[in-house]
Specification:
Layout (H helix, E strand, L loop, with lengths): L1 E2 L6 H11 L4 E9 L7 E8 L3 E5 L9 H8 L5 E4 L3 H11 L6 E3 H6 L9 H9 L19 H28 L6 H8 L22 H21 L3 H4 L2 H9 L22 H12 L19 H22 L3 H4 L2 H8 L11 H15 L3 E6 L2 E6 L7
Parallel strand pairs: 1-4, 2-5, 5-6
Antiparallel strand pairs: 2-3, 3-4, 7-8
Helix pairs in contact: 5-6, 8-10, 8-11, 12-14, 12-15
C-alpha cells in the first residue's frame, strides 16, 4: 500500500478524495484533543483505500476539508469503515450536521464473531493480523506541530491495519451467515440523533439526587444551562460546574444568588457575578418534570415486582447460555432493559422479538417466560431443556 506524506494543502487532498471516491471502501480514523474544550479539536484525519493511505492535517493553514467531508457524508457508493467510531462520527457530525453513511464498525462486527462486547483496536489487530502495535504514541499531544515521522506512522497504521482486517472480517461474516445480523446495529450507529447533544437531554448525564418532580425539573434546567454555557465558552462541562454540584443545587435550591457563595464547588464570586445570575435565572425558570419523563427507580424497573425480577434474572441466564452457544456478545442478542420489559409482560417494540434476534434468542425467551423452557445440568454444563406446559385443573 502506498503511504502518502502528510497532506497539508487543499489540492493534494482534493486529488486523494477524487481517487478514493472510486474505492469500494475506505477505512477512517481521527486524532483529536478534548481535555480543555467542549468541542473536540480535530487534529489529524487518517484514511486508506484499496492501495493508498494518507494522514491529513486539518490544522494546516488554508486547507479545505470539503472534499473529504463530502466523501464521508454524501458519497453513498463508498463504505466507511471505523473501529469503535463513535467519537469519530461525533466529530464529523459536528462539522457537517450529518454522519458517514453507509458505515461499518469493526468493533460491532467483532461482537458477532465471538470477540466480546468492546474489543480494543490493538487486540483486534493482534487477533486478525498477528501484529503488535507500538502504543508509545497513544498519549501524543496531537495539536502540537510539527508532528514527527513516528507519530504520523503510528496514526496511519490505524487505517492500514483496518484496511487489511476488514476484508477478512467480511469474509468470516459471510461464511457464518451473520452479516445481516449487523445491519440494524450499523444503521443505529449512523443515526445523527446519537450525536446531536440536545441541551434538553443533558440531565441524563448526571446522577439524579431524587425522583421528586421539582428536584428533577431543577436538574433538567441546570443541566441545560450548563450545556449552553460550556458550548458558548468552548469549555468542558466540568469546568463550568461539576456534576455533583449541579445535583446538590437541584436538591437544595438556593433562595438568593448570594447563597451561591456558600455552595461547595462554587467560588465566592458566584454570589455576585454574571454567571451566577444566569444560574439563578435557570433555577427560577425551572418547572417540575412530568411523570412521563421521570427516570425509572434504580432498584427495579416499574412493573416488575419480586416475581418479575426473578423472571428477568432467568432471562439474563438464558441470554448468557445462548450467547455462549452462538459465540457472540450477549449485547448483540438483547439488552438488559429489553429483558426487564419482557419479564414485566411487554411484547411489543422489543428488538429481540423481531427478525434474526427472534430466531436466535427471542423465541426461547418467550418460551422461558411462558413455562415451555427450563434449565438443566448435563455433563456438568448448564443447558436449556424443553418442558410440556401442564394445564392447572
Amino acid at each position: 500500500m502506498h503511504i502518502h506524506p502528510l497532506i497539508t494543502d487543499s489540492a493534494t487532498l482534493h486529488n486523494l478524495c477524487t481517487r478514493l471516491a472510486d474505492a469500494d471502501f475506505v477505512t477512517v480514523d481521527t486524532e483529536f484533543m478534548r481535555e480543555s474544550t467542549f468541542w473536540p479539536q480535530l487534529c489529524l484525519i487518517q484514511i486508506a483505500g484499496n492501495d493508498e493511505a494518507a494522514a491529513i492535517d486539518p490544522l494546516a493553514p488554508g486547507i479545505d476539508l470539503a472534499p473529504l467531508l463530502e466523501l464521508m457524508v454524501d458519497n453513498e457508493d463508498v463504505l466507511k469503515v471505523f473501529h469503535a467510531g463513535g467519537q469519530d462520527l461525533e466529530i464529523i457530525y459536528n462539522l457537517t450536521g450529518k454522519t458517514p453513511h453507509p458505515l461499518f464498525d469493526t468493533q460491532v462486527a467483532a461482537m458477532a464473531l465471538g470477540q466480546g462486547d468492546q474489543i480494543g483496536y490493538s487486540n483486534l489487530v493482534d487477533s486478525w493480523l498477528g501484529v503488535s502495535i507500538d502504543k508509545g504514541a497513544r498519549f501524543t499531544d496531537w495539536a502540537r506541530r510539527p508532528l514527527d515521522d513516528r507519530q504520523i506512522e503510528y496514526a496511519i497504521g490505524d487505517v492500514t491495519h483496518l484496511a487489511a482486517i476488514f476484508p477478512k472480517m467480511l469474509a468470516r461474516l459471510k461464511k457464518t451467515g451473520r452479516g445481516g445480523w449487523l445491519d440494524q446495529e450499523m444503521e443505529r450507529l449512523a443515526d445523527p440523533a446519537n450525536y446531536a447533544n440536545d441541551p434538553d437531554e443533558a440531565w441524563h448525564r448526571i446522577r439524579a439526587p431524587s425522583r421528586k418532580p421539582e428536584v428533577m425539573g431543577r436538574l433538567k434546567a441546570l443541566a441545560r444551562w450548563r450545556e449552553l454555557e460550556a458550548r458558548s465558552k468552548d469549555l468542558p462541562r466540568g469546568r463550568i460546574v461539576k456534576d455533583e454540584t449541579l445535583a446538590d443545587l437541584a436538591g437544595h435550591a438556593p433562595r438568593r444568588q448570594a447563597d451561591l457563595a456558600k455552595v461547595r464547588g462554587l467560588s465566592a464570586n458566584w454570589g455576585i457575578n454574571d454567571i451566577g445570575a444566569r444560574l439563578m435565572a435557570a433555577l427560577e425558570a425551572a418547572q417540575p418534570m412530568g411523570a412521563d419523563e421521570l427516570p425509572a427507580r434504580d432498584d427495579r424497573k416499574p412493573g416488575l415486582g419480586k416475581d418479575g425480577a426473578l423472571v428477568a434474572d432467568l432471562l439474563k441466564l438464558l441470554l448468557k447460555i445462548k450467547a455462549r452457544d452462538l459465540d457472540v456478545a450477549p449485547r448483540l442478542l438483547a439488552r438488559g432493559d429489553e429483558l426487564d420489559a419482557l419479564a414485566a409482560g411487554t411484547r411489543d417494540g422489543l428488538a429481540m422479538l423481531e427478525g434474526w434476534r427472534f430466531d436466535q434468542f427471542g423465541r426461547d425467551a418467550l418460551d422461558l417466560v411462558d413455562g415451555r423452557l427450563g434449565f438443566a445440568v448435563k455433563g456438568g454444563k448448564l443447558k436449556m431443556t424443553r418442558a410440556e406446559v401442564l394445564e392447572t385443573p
